[in-house]
Amino acid sequence: MVGRRRWVTCVGALVLACVLPASALAQHHGAAAAPADDHVYVVRSGDTLSSVAEHLGVEPMALAARNYLTRPFSLRIGRRLRVPAGVAADVLRRLPTRSALDARSGGGGDAGGAHVVTLVRARDQGVLETNLRAATPALRVRMERFLRYRDGSRHIVHPRLIHVLADIGDHFEGHRIVVLSGFRPVLRNRSAPRSRHSQGYAVDLRVEGVSLAALQTYCSSLENLGCGLYARGRYVHVDVRRESDDWMGGRTVSPRDAATDPDHAERIEDVLTDAAPMRADVADAP
Question: Which of 90, 96, 151, 227 has the most CB atoms around its CB within 10 Å?
Answer without folding.
Answer: 227
